[in-house]
């Protein structure tokens, strides 16, 4: 069997060379020799340090492949200055200040038994134990796989690896899975981009985080299955590859794991401040007049708003990259008006090109479109009713540059601020087709990383001090560094869909990508089953849906309450109207109340965003991140922390006015609405009338509250700084101009607030970013029974 593998490798040496070139092309920061590449009877194991708590392991039967740089999305550089290599009876041992890695000695295999002749594995076995500097076991590679197969006409392998498991290990992340469960233990995840996934679009970010002080970053962009803690092991298996490559990141806290992910894959930029306000969208605004009437509607009603979105079909044809002047006669004038109102604009740009569009022939001639094995352009999907348009090959750097230049010259020149890059899975599934760098099967999950980099890099080059952001529908390892705000795609407008959003978002942010949201109210046309209980929001006057969807205003209210306390707040959907006054007389004041709460919390949220920029840690946090000693917190996926202070428990069932909430152990908690103080480590029945969801504040927290502003274009002063006593506390206030990239070099203004529990006193390290005096702002919350 080994002879078969060696022969297959030799037969495809040219393809392997192309693979190595592609890997180097997309990993500019990671070109260094490993600490060592050791031979285990023909299995070559390479070990590289990326810092004291990060190690990369590569296993192959080809020494050159074992020593090749990591794949796309990995931009961090090796850092093995403090690592030492020694050999003893146990094998090859690599040590740093934080880790020891032992590649176990493997004696020459004995002659196989009769049973082993039939069932023996094809590969020489490999075992790699990873432990803390104190010898505490962390995890262990127990086996690996390389099974010859032909994929898309290419002789290649299915590659995989198995890791040790313990019964009390829980697993999180791997991107976006909308099956409604946070803890992945005992489940098999299909880690591939898939728009049509039955529960809602799935997105693969192959970063698996545990509650045991380690995470595994799998280094392969092909479609991958991951079985987490299933049958006493955790297994990764990718459909295309010639080696096993992965990183293990360790640390005493989950934030250490995200710092490691940041080090390997890039910094999450601080979005423009407008990203923290309300983003108003609809599928779709049919004219300039309609879009402007909605923007003016917010201003005349006194409701805050930061961005208006122009979604698809504002163009004349798919792929024209133009603006239909019949319906949008003066886009530059429209944007000038929006800017004068303190608003920004976002415009959707697709990577699709109809055969009749003006750029199709040029792109096809240059080979800049997804194509089949014969070079013929792949036009449309073979499924659904979606058969219009070819896909831009964003793996080609020339195509990416061209795409940005067309967006810049044809669209952004008309005053639009930010782009929405839709269909970044891509929606045209690349399996069976080819990119410029190789098989679509080999690079199934790569497109969103490279496609969003076209605008990220183009904007950085042509608008160097303009703080960019991109609405992105999918992700891969490192995509957070492109400045993306992600969302859960075209979800249903049902209570079930809302219920699934909460664990979906927590799993996504647990994957190392902090900015996630969902279309408030769902994207699809409201068409849920009849309400099982009396509706809590009278639909009278609602124009956002058909009259028979009587509970839809209630659903929208609950969804809005939830999204107001997520990293981004965006209204979108396939409805006649989506603005907050279009859900009826009863819904409007509730929505306005929550919209104002969102804006009051912007000083808090913006400071959290800057902390994510500094550390890589997400600020919408599943409970396992902050309460590792509480076993109850390990599996809860329907409530979460927003920063270190706020515990949010969304209401996702129709007609209910209370819900069970778990208050994690190790802290007391204040009810946000009543200031009642409760002890942690217990389940409670929390009141949830239609105008509020349960929100609790951790004792020993500082929460800055801002004055109301029409948008973040108006400088927001602080109304108060709330202190919830119970322990010493720190919070770093941060502010800047909200629009430039100055924060990267010179930074904005910050002040560290410190609450001294013993002295019952709040102090600041210096002047507040707003220039206000702290004394008159402090509000110490008095607990109520």
UniProtKB/TrEMBL annotation:
What's this protein's name?
Answer: Glycoside hydrolase family 31 protein
Q: Where is the Glycoside hydrolase family 31 N-terminal domain?
A: 158-226
Q: Where is the Glycoside hydrolase family 31 TIM barrel domain?
A: 268-608
**What Gene Ontology terms describe what this protein does at the molecular function level?**
carbohydrate binding; hydrolase activity, hydrolyzing O-glycosyl compounds
| Keyword field | Glycosidase, Hydrolase, Signal
**The keyword Signal is assigned to this record:** yes
Using the record, list the residue span of the signal peptide; answer none if the entry has no such feature.
1-32
Instruction: Give the source species.
Output: Sphingomonas populi
């Amino acid at each position: 069997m080994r002879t078969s593998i060696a022969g297959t490798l030799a037969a495809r040496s040219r393809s392997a060379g192309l693979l190595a070139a592609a890997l180097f092309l997309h990993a500019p920061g990671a070109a260094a020799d490993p600490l060592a590449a050791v031979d285990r009877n023909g299995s070559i194991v390479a070990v590289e340090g990326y810092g004291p708590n990060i190690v990369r392991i590569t296993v192959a039967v080809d020494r050159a492949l074992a020593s090749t740089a990591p794949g796309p999305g990995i931009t961090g550089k090796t850092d093995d200055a403090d690592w030492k290599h020694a050999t003893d009876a146990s094998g090859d041992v690599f040590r740093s200040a934080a880790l020891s890695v032992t590649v176990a000695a493997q004696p020459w295999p004995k002659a196989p038994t009769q049973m082993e002749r039939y069932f023996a594995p094809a590969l020489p076995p490999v075992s790699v134990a990873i432990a803390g500097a104190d010898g505490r076991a962390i995890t262990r590679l127990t086996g690996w796989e390389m099974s010859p197969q032909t994929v898309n006409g290419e002789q290649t392998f299915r590659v995989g690896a198995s890791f040790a498991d313990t019964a009390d290990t829980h697993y999180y992340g791997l991107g976006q899975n909308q099956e409604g469960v946070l803890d992945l233990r005992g489940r098999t995840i299909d880690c591939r981009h898939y728009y049509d996934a039955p529960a809602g679009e799935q997105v693969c970010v192959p970063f698996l985080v545990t509650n045991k002080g380690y995470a595994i970053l799998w280094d392969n962009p092909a479609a991958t299955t991951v079985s987490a803690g299933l049958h006493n092991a955790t297994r990764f298996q990718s459909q295309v590859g010639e080696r096993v490559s992965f990183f293990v990141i360790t640390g005493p806290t989950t934030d250490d794991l995200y710092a490691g992910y940041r080090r390997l894959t890039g910094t999450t930029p601080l979005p423009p401040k407008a990203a923290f306000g309300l983003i108003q969208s609809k599928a779709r605004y049919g004219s300039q007049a309609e879009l402007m009437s909605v923007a003016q509607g917010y201003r005349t009603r006194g409701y805050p708003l930061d961005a208006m979105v122009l979604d698809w079909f504002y163009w004349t044809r798919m792929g024209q990259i133009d603006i239909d002047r019949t319906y949008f006669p003066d886009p530059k004038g429209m944007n000038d008006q929006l800017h004068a109102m303190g608003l920004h604009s976002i415009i959707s740009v697709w990577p699709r090109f109809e055969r009749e569009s003006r750029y199709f022939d040029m792109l096809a001639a240059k080979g800049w479109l997804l194509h089949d094995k014969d070079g013929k352009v792949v036009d449309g999907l073979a499924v659904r009713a979606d058969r219009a348009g070819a896909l831009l090959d964003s793996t080609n750097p020339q195509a990416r540059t061209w795409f940005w230049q067309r967006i810049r010259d044809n669209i952004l020149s008309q005053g639009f601020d930010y782009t929405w890059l839709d269909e970044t899975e891509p929606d045209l599934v690349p399996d069976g087709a080819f990119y410029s760098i190789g098989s679509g099967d080999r690079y199934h999950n790569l497109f969103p990383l490279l496609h969003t980099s076209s605008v990220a890099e183009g904007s950085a080059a042509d608008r160097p001090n303009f703080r960019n952001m991109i609405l992105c529908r999918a992700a891969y390892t490192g995509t957070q560094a492109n400045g993306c705000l992600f969302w859960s795609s075209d979800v249903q407008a049902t209570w079930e869909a809302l219920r699934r959003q909460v664990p979906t978002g927590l799993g996504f942010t647990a994957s190392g990508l902090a900015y996630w949201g969902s279309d408030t109210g769902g994207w699809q046309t409201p068409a849920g089953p009849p309400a099982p209980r009396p509706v809590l929001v009278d639909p009278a006057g609602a124009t956002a849906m058909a009259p028979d969807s009587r509970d839809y205003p209630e659903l929208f209210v609950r969804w809005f309450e939830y999204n107001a306390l997520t990293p981004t707040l965006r209204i979108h959907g396939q409805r006649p109207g989506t603005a907050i006054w279009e859900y009826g007389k009863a819904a409007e004041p509730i929505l306005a109340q929550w919209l104002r709460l969102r804006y009051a919390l912007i000083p808090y949220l913006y400071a959290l965003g800057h902390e994510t920029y500094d550390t890589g840690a997400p600020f919408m946090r599943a409970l396992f991140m902050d309460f590792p000693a509480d076993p109850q917190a390990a599996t809860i996926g329907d409530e979460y922390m927003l920063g270190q202070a706020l515990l949010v428990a969304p209401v996702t069932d129709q007609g209910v006015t209370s819900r069970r909430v778990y208050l994690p152990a190790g802290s007391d908690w204040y009810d946000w609405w009543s200031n009642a103080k409760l002890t942690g480590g217990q389940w409670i029945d929390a009141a949830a009338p239609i105008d509020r969801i349960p929100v609790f504040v951790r004792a020993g927290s500082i929460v800055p509250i801002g004055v109301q502003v029409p948008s973040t274009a108006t400088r927001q002063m602080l109304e108060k700084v709330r202190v919830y006593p119970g322990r010493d506390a720190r919070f770093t206030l941060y502010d800047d101009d909200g629009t430039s990239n100055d924060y990267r070099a010179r930074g904005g203004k910050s002040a560290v607030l410190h609450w001294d529990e013993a002295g019952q006193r709040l102090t600041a390290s210096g002047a507040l970013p707003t220039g206000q005096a702290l004394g008159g702002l402090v509000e110490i919350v008095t607990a109520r029974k």
